[in-house]
# Entry
Amino acid sequence: MRSNKLSLVLAASLLFTTSLHANNGAGANAATGSAIGGVSTGVVIAAVAGVAVVAALSSGSSGSATSASTTAATAATTAATAATTAAAANAAADTAIAAVSSLVSGDATSTTLLATATTAAAAAEISAAAAATAASDLATASSATLSGVVNTAGTTICAAASSCTSSELASLSYTAAYTAKVAAEDALYVNTVLTALRAAMVTAGISIPASFDTALATATTAAAASQTAANSTIDSYTTLLTTLGVTGTTISTSTGTTGATSGTTGT
# Structure
């Protein structure tokens, strides 16, 4: 019979989820981003490599616990991929912005779109960093840890020293999936604005540098890869809820190519 330490942990989990929704805007994300750093896919995969049973998931079925750990580890890996590819898209977008920043001052529409793209790119970078941290936390929680389940920044992830409850693991998986989607959506949105900027520049008779087109193509490819990885993470999160036998907040997959401001909706 599964042992769920819900008295305090579930309350903390619910508060954490509520905080995530409340802090989804760019301003709140900026505060988050200032306190966290990115993590590469390789780092997260390395953290997941020693996947083991999360002891608190089940007192009578090690197979069920192992399955949950494996599913959570898979979600962590794809979430890390989403974060890494979103970061690559953001870097390429920055290159595109730099390529035309000195060319648009004579056209009001282009100038406005450049400012929008710059702001969106900054928010997207924060989102990618948040997704990387969430992926790292989930990877740690789904791996064997003897000295306490904490992330690389030293923040406690689960209440127990060496295990997580089902509600804690579900909450961490939710965060990884949701922030992965936000990172992907934000990266897609930046590309949408840059595409509009290009069109405005053409209309204004401003020559488009080849470096802009190359960077935008790179950003578009990377953002699409981030979206695919984010959706895989959402699928793993849904599977994990079923494996654990718990309910959780539904996350819709990211669709379309235009993205959304702060990743709040798909298109």
